[in-house]
Write a structure and sequence with these properties.
This protein is of the alpha/beta class. 52% of the residues lie in helices and 10% in strands. It has helices at residues 2-15, 18-22, 25-38, 72-75, 80-100, 103-114, 126-133, 141-163, 168-182, 187-197, 203-217, 228-245, 249-280, 289-294, 307-316, 340-372, 374-380, 428-460, 477-510, 565-582, 617-620, 632-644, 668-683, 698-705, 726-738; strands at 47-51, 58-60, 64-68, 384-386, 468-472, 512-517, 522-523, 536-540, 548-555, 587-594, 602-608, 650-657, 687-693, 716-719. The longest helix has 34 residues, at 477-510.
């Protein structure tokens, strides 16, 4: 059997795809154990969901982490172990956000920028103040969010790597993938390529890229170049270091605001510089060839009244070059009419118009620049979604920076050229577990098919042809919680019951020799001296314990909710099943009820089966709960029919019920007659039926299965008010059956 199972495991492992492997329940539990280890100080259960759709990388709401297998970081990995590293790295990143990011403060900062201010408050530059006066805060939002995300990522990833240095290697791998994907070159390389191409470098995009790379990865891409851009960058780096290395969220946001202010000031100056540079370029004129020949190039632009000079002076706000030049619009005091007021009004209106156009042009230019930064922001963005519903935990060290020497040295741990990755971890154990899970799923499907065939066979011998619904349920949170709370005490009871049988069974399997007999098959020469003539002996040959199979049927009707009936029934079913597990006796556990309306289906729920391969049957038993009505005769018939197909030499059916069959057209009289006929029929087939009276229902169940029936056709009745004593009585019956 072991060889067959190993062969099935190997075949399943070979056929299993990476998507199937990472979405198995085994891997889900494995990842959740990693999350629990990282977030253990959070003291709450954080689930994980693995999907394979869309283009997102991951997201978290504080209670669940979702990882998408359909992203490039995972898909481009050549082996399963490499994909595992990336998935673990992404999970650690999300754990960092759950532990250390203050999402409420982040949203408050974004909202403040949309309303043309910064939070926390800083003394921002005149340039940013003018932009806020012009209601331009919303236009900066994408750049601000990207800057804030990079600083936040740099901070939380450093803390996670320090917190879990082993698995932190996986996070380093994800950081290298992200840095490689960003593909932002050094400043020196960009200058060389721009010079070779004969064009100017994009200074705004360059400074943004330098800042974001340094904030997230701690990598200095400025190189050895020294100019106004690198000087600005190195004025920003102390603020970036302060933001990344402080635990206080408000302090981080304040440093981000300072960096953002410096960036906007630089962008505004760069726009003005580019505008001035455009103005310095000669503007082409549309002139006829004759005019071009007659015009003296040396005198071009020197004529005092030239239109070009007037327009240029008006645009640049400059005064004429000499006092002899006469420009009425520029010199209202030279008006011959002496109407100074009219000229002043006209000049004022023209100046306001020019100023308004200048603001509009500036806003348009700024919007174009910000839109051109979209690609850089997209490459450096977090690529994850976060909506944590809880505030980040506050510790006593939140108001201080990291202690000196505890932060990984910049440029070493996060060096993209460092090819050292995580040690080769072995996934073979997890692959075996995942293969077992796949085989267990296939086995469950076979169990359900067998239940369906059994239901069809049951229907053939009955007058009521009710169809049935077969289920093999999965344990929910409530069942798992009940199991964790109660199973230890119930296991102790099952062990004590088992202990009573161990000695007898071992003696029977070992064999023995009986001495001192009056008659026997052998003469015991060692006892020939005895005068009482007890000189004979017999040898007891070793015997195998007879094959046995047990089925437990639990009533899940609505009446079982009264008092502690259902609770006692669950405990009895669990102890019986566990006892059979200890004794290597195949045992199945079923619950039965009917559908809600119109009660035309008998619902048989299998919570434990001897052929099942997963380890959740002990939790499934706690899925038994009161539901609707019950047709006891149909359910007993179903379980007895299943036992009759077993190859075991001894078959036992234990019925736990309150003895009150009730459904549409199925009252006390009909239900009683049905149950008695089923028990009588299957007792003739060698199936022992045992019933148990629970709570205050002993009289009802005895009336249903014992009263008014010949002893040979009646079920065995056990009356125990304490259901924990029932398995002991059941073990005694098994002992008699075995011996």
């Amino acid at each position: 059997m072991a060889k067959v199972l190993r062969r099935l495991l190997n075949e399943t492992k070979d056929k299993m795809t990476d998507e199937e492997f990472f979405t198995t329940k085994v891997m889900k539990q494995h990842f959740e154990r990693i999350i629990e280890g990282v977030c253990k100080t959070f003291k709450r259960y954080i689930r994980i969901q693995i999907i394979n759709e869309g283009s997102s990388v991951a997201c978290t709401n504080g209670d669940m982490i979702t990882v998408n297998l359909n992203n490039d970081w995972i898909k481009e990995q050549p082996t399963r172990i490499e994909k595992y590293y990336v998935i673990v790295g992404i999970i650690l990143h999300e754990c960092g956000h759950i532990l250390y990011t203050d999402f409420k403060l982040m949203e408050k900062c974004f909202d403040a920028l949309e309303h043309n201010r910064l939070f926390p408050i800083i003394d921002y530059s005149e340039t940013l103040a003018e932009c806020f006066d012009e209601n331009m805060g919303r236009r900066f939002l994408k750049v601000y969010q990207t800057l804030d995300n990079c600083v936040e990522d740099g901070h939380i990833e450093k803390r996670v790597i320090r917190h879990v240095p082993g698995y932190g290697e996986c996070l380093l791998k994800v950081r290298k993938l992200h840095l490689a994907q960003a593909g932002i070159q050094t400043y020196e390389t960009q200058l060389q390529k721009a010079e070779e191409a004969g064009r100017d470098i994009d200074r705004i995009g360059t400074i943004i890229g330098l800042v974001l790379i340094y904030a997230k990865f701690g990598v200095d891409n400025a190189g050895d170049v020294s100019d106004d851009l690198t000087k600005l960058f190195y004025r920003m780096t102390p603020h970036i270091d302060a933001a990344v290395n402080t635990n206080n969220a408000a302090s981080r946001k304040k440093e981000v605001n300072i960096i953002f202010d410096m960036l906007i000031d630089f962008i505004s100056d760069e726009i003005e510089r580019l505008k001035e540079k455009e103005k310095e370029k000669p503007e082409p004129k549309d002139e006829s060839p004759e005019e071009k020949e007659d015009e003296d190039p040396s005198e071009k632009g020197d004529e005092p009244g030239s239109e070009d000079e007037d327009e240029e002076s008006s645009e640049e706000g400059c005064e004429p070059d000499s006092e002899d030049e006469t420009d009425e619009s520029a010199s209202p005091s030279l008006s011959e009419d002496g109407d100074d007021s009219e000229d002043e009004d006209a000049s004022s209106e023209e100046t306001e118009s020019e100023s308004k156009m200048s603001k509009e042009e500036k806003a348009k230019a700024l919007e174009e620049v910000l839109s051109s930064l979209g690609d850089i922001c997209d490459e450096m963005s977090d690529k994850t979604e976060h909506s944590d519903t809880l505030a980040s935990p506050v510790s006593e060290e939140d108001d201080v920076s990291e202690a000196e020497g505890t932060t990984p040295e910049e440029g070493s741990d996060f060096d993209p050229k460092n090819e050292e990755g995580p040690e080769e971890w072995d996934l073979s154990y997890l692959e075996d577990c995942a293969a077992e899970e796949e085989i267990a799923i296939a086995t469950k499907k076979q169990i359900v098919k067998a239940m369906t065939r059994n239901a069809d066979d049951t229907r053939k011998g009955r007058t009521d042809k009710f169809p049935s619904i077969q289920q093999y349920v999965e344990p929910d949170d409530e069942a798992i919680e009940m199991f964790d709370k109660e199973h230890e005490e119930l296991d102790r009871i099952a062990r004590r019951v088992k202990k009573n049988l161990d000695k007898v069974i071992k003696e029977r399997q070992k064999g023995d020799r009986l001495n001192g007999l009056y008659t026997g098959k052998q003469l015991d020469s060692a006892h020939t001296y005895r005068k009482d003539k007890r000189i004979f002996a017999n040898k007891i040959l070793p015997e195998d314990v007879p094959d046995m199979e047990v089925c437990v049927l639990v009533d899940c009707s609505g009446s079982m909710c009264c008092g502690s009936r259902m609770d006692q029934s669950r405990k009895c079913a669990y102890i019986t099943w566990k006892f059979c597990q200890f004794m290597d006796i195949p045992c199945s556990v079923y619950g039965h009820t009917t559908d809600a309306y119109p009660e035309k289906h008998v619902v048989m729920t299998c919570v434990a089966h001897p052929d099942n391969l997963d380890k959740d049957d002990e939790k499934r038993i706690f899925m038994l709960r009161p539901e609707y009505d019950n047709r006891d005769g149909w359910a007993v018939n179903f379980c007895a029919e299943a036992l009759s197909k077993s190859s075991a030499t001894s078959k036992m059916l234990l019925i736990i019920s309150d003895g009150l069959p009730a459904a549409v057209g199925y009252g006390d009289a009909l239900g009683k007659r049905d149950c008695q006929e089923v028990v009588k029929r299957y007792k003739k087939k060698g199936i022992s039926v045992i019933t148990a009276g629970i709570d205050d229902c002993a009289r009802d169940i005895k009336s249903l299965y014992v009263d008014g029936i010949a002893p040979k056709d009646a079920a065995m009745f056990l009356d125990y008010s304490d259901m924990t004593q029932l398995p002991r009585a059941f073990a005694t019956i098994i002992k008699k059956e075995l011996l």
